[in-house]
């Protein structure tokens, strides 16, 4: 029976990746058992033993829309080693030329569309790209000093003679009246990590494009990634998945989905490169489709630079189909795709045409940062990551209620409590199969999409600090 197969995965204290499938007749999700060790070249073996909390993933196949679950997920503990030849940080206790590394925790949800190829590839490789981008930053992030403008390797440092600092009497006095063109912009360590994650998404997207033919990478995917590094959570979202915090003291608000959350960049691309519109679309926005009989009349519109609305005289070009049409969940770019951020989709074209849609899509995520060291968390505080299959039928308040109801029924040190939270969120959003399809408790339609949920505890015995 399609839709009744559920997969639960957990990263446990021994660093193992567990999977157990329930029987098709089982209405719930079974607790995971121990599985084979998860081995990865970038992983830190046994690192999870220092963090006994479970990071739970529950997944369920859609209610008959397709034969396979196009959602993919990944959970890793990754060691980032400094590149050979880079200078250490004596101020941070590192020897020159040292190879100390950083460790980060990583969770990723990938919601595939038009095939699962891009989602599978991203789930296996995106964390490696994050690791690679962070390798240049190991010694910088360990140093409390501001980030250097230019990175310097050991080889270059040895080749250049050391310069003694100018004596105070030899220094040229500063003149506040003169323009200081030499002043440098201060860049925080937080901004460096955000940039590393953004570049990792771009590198992943480029790799999908390079290998889509040889590896048969079909379609695209939305990507929601959480990275815990040096006391902070970096949550990167490219697509219509969402995340939110739940619990007594969680500082993490639920974030809106990205469908299409970026109409202005799309319209700007259409304005700057009208040839991409194929003489079929207009970058202007109107409250509704323009009819031919309205030529010459003045109607409301806005262009790529406007927040408000104005009136313009309708011309022949305004009769073209809008670049973005519809509102909310029903909005579509070029009447084809409902998201403006994501990975893949390099071959996606407008139906029955040769117009490529990729130039109007972005692989760069929206990255939000949450400093967990600024808050005191209890074992009931969690971060919930979910694909749109969850959020389409379950709102923020309902998610928070499920989290609190489940957690209050278990002891704070019981690791199974997070398993049950993920299970309950998935099962409630899927609903129960009745004569009129899958129905929720209120008899409304359940989610017809694949549903994947991570529940990540923020406090208690498994506190990241």
Automatic annotation (TrEMBL):
<protein>
    <submittedName>
        <fullName>Protein phosphatase, Mg2+/Mn2+ dependent 1J</fullName>
    </submittedName>
</protein>
<feature type="domain" description="PPM-type phosphatase">
    <location>
        <begin position="54"/>
        <end position="458"/>
    </location>
</feature>
<dbReference type="InterPro" id="IPR015655">
    <property type="entry name" value="PP2C"/>
</dbReference>
<dbReference type="GO" id="GO:0005739">
    <property type="term" value="C:mitochondrion"/>
</dbReference>
<dbReference type="InterPro" id="IPR036457">
    <property type="entry name" value="PPM-type-like_dom_sf"/>
</dbReference>
<dbReference type="InterPro" id="IPR001932">
    <property type="entry name" value="PPM-type_phosphatase-like_dom"/>
</dbReference>
<dbReference type="GO" id="GO:0004741">
    <property type="term" value="F:[pyruvate dehydrogenase (acetyl-transferring)]-phosphatase activity"/>
</dbReference>
<dbReference type="Pfam" id="PF00481">
    <property type="entry name" value="PP2C"/>
</dbReference>
């Amino acid at each position: 029976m399609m839709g009744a197969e559920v997969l639960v995965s957990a990263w446990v204290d021994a660093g193992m990746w567990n999977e157990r499938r329930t029987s098709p007749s089982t209405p719930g999700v079974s607790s995971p058992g121990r599985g084979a060790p998860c081995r990865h070249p970038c992983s830190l073996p046994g690192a999870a033993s220092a963090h006994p909390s479970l990071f739970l993933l529950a997944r369920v196949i859609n209610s008959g829309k397709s034969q396979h679950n196009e959602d993919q997920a990944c959970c890793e503990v990754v060691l980032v080693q400094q590149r050979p030849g880079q200078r250490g940080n004596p101020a941070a206790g590192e020897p020159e030329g040292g190879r100390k590394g950083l460790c980060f925790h990583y969770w990723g949800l990938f919601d595939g569309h038009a095939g699962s190829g891009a989602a599978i590839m991203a789930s296996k490789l995106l964390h490696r790209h994050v690791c690679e981008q962070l390798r240049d930053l190991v010694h910088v992030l360990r140093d409390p000093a501001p980030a250097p403008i230019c990175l310097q390797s050991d080889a270059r440092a040895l080749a250049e003679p050391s310069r003694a600092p100018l004596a105070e009497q030899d220094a040229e006095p500063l003149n506040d009246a003169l323009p200081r063109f030499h002043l440098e912009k201060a860049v925080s360590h937080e901004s460096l990590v955000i940039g590393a994650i953004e570049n990792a998404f771009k590198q992943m997207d480029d790799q999908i494009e390079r290998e889509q033919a040889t590896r048969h990478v079909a379609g695209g995917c939305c990507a929601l990634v959480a990275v815990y590094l040096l006391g902070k959570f970096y949550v990167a979202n490219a697509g219509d998945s969402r995340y939110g915090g739940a619990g007594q003291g969680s500082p993490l608000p639920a974030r809106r989905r990205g469908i299409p959350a970026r109409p202005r960049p799309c319209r700007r691309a259409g304005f700057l490169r009208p040839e991409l519109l194929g003489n079929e679309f207009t970058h202007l926005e109107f409250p509704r489709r323009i009819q031919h009989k309205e030529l010459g009349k003045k109607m409301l519109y806005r262009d790529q630079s406007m927040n408000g609305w104005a009136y313009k005289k309708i011309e022949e070009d305004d009769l073209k189909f809008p670049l973005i049409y519809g509102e909310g969940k029903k909005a579509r770019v070029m009447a084809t795709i409902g998201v403006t951020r994501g990975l893949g989709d390099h071959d996606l074209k407008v139906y029955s045409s040769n117009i490529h849609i990729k130039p109007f899509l972005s692989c760069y995520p929206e990255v939000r940062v949450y400093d967990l060291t600024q808050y005191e968390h209890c074992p009931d505080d969690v971060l919930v990551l979910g694909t749109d299959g969850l959020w389409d039928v379950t709102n923020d308040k309902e998610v928070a209620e499920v989290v609190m109801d489940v957690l209050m029924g278990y002891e704070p040190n019981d690791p199974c409590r997070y398993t049950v939270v993920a299970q309950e969120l998935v099962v409630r959003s899927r609903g129960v199969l009745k004569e009129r399809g899958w129905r929720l408790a209120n008899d409304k339609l359940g989610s017809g999409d694949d549903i994947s949920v991570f529940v990540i505890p923020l406090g208690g015995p498994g506190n990241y600090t």
